[in-house]
Amino acid sequence: MQETTPLTAQQAQLLSQLVDGLSTEQLAWVRGFLAGINHSVRHAGAQAPAAGTGSAAAPQLTILYGSQTGHAQEVAEHAKARAVAAGFKVDLFAMGDYKASRLKNDKLLLVAVSTQGEGEPPDDARDFYEFLHGEKAPKLEGTRFAVLGLGDSSYEKFCQAGKDFDARLAALGAERLVARVDSDVDYDGPAERWIEETVEALKRVAAPAAAGKAGAADGFSLASLAGAVAPAAAASQYSRKHPFDATVLENLTLSGRGSSKEVHHIELSLEGSGLTYEPGDALGVVVKNDETLVDELIDTLALDPQATTTTQDSTLSLREAFLRAYDITTLSRAFLEKYAALAESTELKALLAAGNETALRDYLYGRDVLDVVRQFPVRKVKAAEFVGTLRTLQPRLYSIASSLAANPEAVHITVGAVRYDSHGRARRGVASTYLADVAREGETVPVYIEANRNFKLPSDSSAPVIMIGPGTGIAPFRAFVEERQALDAPGRNWLFFGDRNFRTDFLYQREWQRYVKDGALTKIDLAFSRDGEDKVYVQHRMREQGKELYAWLQEGAYLYVCGDADQMARDVNTALVDIVAEHGGLAQDAAAEYVKTLQREKRYQRDVY
Ligand SMILES: Cc1cc2nc3c(=O)[nH]c(=O)nc-3n(C[C@H](O)[C@H](O)[C@H](O)COP(=O)(O)OP(=O)(O)OC[C@H]3O[C@@H](n4cnc5c(N)ncnc54)[C@H](O)[C@@H]3O)c2cc1C
Ligand SMILES: Cc1cc2nc3c(=O)[nH]c(=O)nc-3n(C[C@H](O)[C@H](O)[C@H](O)COP(=O)(O)O)c2cc1C
């Protein structure tokens, strides 16, 4: 990693001016950025032209990102800052904004892309993905590239989009600068190393004179530095790594008596945090594991709960580390591979062998780490060895259900408690049941804001809005309507909501009725799947209302979908294409293209999970 390099006096002064507005994380990043500049300057050597002389054109680098919730974007922005510091002229694009016709001329190309759905690229990256994989993609001999995949190893198609981009760029003749990196939920470290190695490789292949641009006086300013820092959290010192302890103001069960679901409405105070958000953003909740489960696991492993354990950030007892630092529930191939080696289990190794994918998928479903440890005991394991099989415990995201304009210094979320029985044990979702059961009024919950630039109300407040949010997918639309009412936005609002039963599962029923009465909600269509003989879902209501829905789209409406990614989002998309085909008199291909254009124009946005 970056060696420590002293700051110049000018940089130290700039840093001190910035300190007040930055979080600890951002400060660390700024230090790294400045160190990168100094490092480049020192390594540029005496033959490098003086900064700002303009004697050598900086080599052109293009960085593309495909990002749903902003992680890949954040990495791409850091990569840009590093490459600029190393003397490159950098163009940074969301894949959705990139003109594919540029591709054959972009000889140095970096790609940071996450994976969504079941191994698919993010919405915004789909067009470019399809172009690259299609017949019109150009030959790319002479192009140098590097790919960073972001993903989650508990998904079967881990970092699939990154793998696809990497393979396709190579197949088109481009040459790798460094090997692809597939980063898991703890992406910060791998991403930082990928950036470092990639920039070093870039410096080797591009003109060494590039480093001449790295002079701190050239292109380096307070404004450019501040602009390079991730913008979302800039106003607050609180972040994912440094969450704010928000006091629970209210924790209500929204589901009625007798419901087959358990949904909570939770209000938290942000007073004194400086945290702000916009409708469409999510609240990150830093969670802890269930104490009973932690004790059972330690007992089964015959470990000392007080054994000293060193995590990424601190030294804790094993019990504390299992409670707060490690994911002790999610089962994944990556965990099983490490555990099989530790337990020397031939049965587990056989399950992991090539060709056994279906059996592995069946085994992973509905089981957790404790099931595996009980079924395949490991003898005399050391705490550190077992900890080495685990990933860090990840915060969970919840779509924000409130508008700051209507609720100053507060944030609301809508949480579906995950509870189910499996393999003879009662299971509880880590975060949702912690929020449902433990986060009662007066308790504090560590939170941060995860901005989502891909799920935003139209900037034109008169544009009509269509919102499709069954189940807890309703949450951001409560924020949307609240915001539009608070700001007197003249645009029309149409909500499609669905759940199981009208009587028990009509989330925020009274609020919607009031909004309809006030005129804040122009239209509402409801689908309750278990009230009648036939199952009725939101996509059925959309089809019934197809003519009017198409008319709204023709009048410039923005369409939003939130909630279940597996079935609902797919069915809604199919319904949308069919509606456009039928009511727009278009062939199915042309209707699909119409919907893609909506997506490209950011008039069709999804926040699905
Ligand atoms: C951008 C975004 C916004 C979100 N917004 C919301 C929101 O507004 N409201 C909300 O409630 N959630 C929301 N979520 C989901 C939320 O982040 C959590 O994933 C969810 O609450 C479950 O987390 P958990 O820790 O309780 O469960 P975990 O401990 O993570 O357990 C969940 C896992 O349990 C397994 N599982 C669940 N049910 C079963 C079953 N019946 N049988 C077998 N296995 C099962 C699945 O593998 C599942 O992934 C959002 C997610 C994202 C990414
Ligand atoms: C609905 C959903 C589906 C996902 N599917 C996958 C997947 O198939 N494979 C994978 O490796 N990661 C998957 N992930 C994890 C994301 O890729 C990971 O959270 C990543 O850091 C997101 O980066 P972004 O914010 O740039 O989009 C999924 C995440 C969500 C919310």
UniProtKB/TrEMBL annotation:
Its EC number is 1.8.1.2. It catalyses: hydrogen sulfide + 3 NADP(+) + 3 H2O = sulfite + 3 NADPH + 4 H(+). Its cofactor is FAD; FMN. FMN binds at S114, T115, Q116, G117, L150, G151, D152, S153, S154, Y155, E156, K157, F158, C159. It is an enzyme of class 1 (oxidoreductase). Residues 241-458 form the FAD-binding FR-type domain. Residues 61-199 form the Flavodoxin-like domain. Binds 1 FAD per subunit. Pathway: Sulfur metabolism; hydrogen sulfide biosynthesis; hydrogen sulfide from sulfite (NADPH route): step 1/1. This is Sulfite reductase [NADPH] flavoprotein alpha-component. It comes from Pandoraea nosoerga.
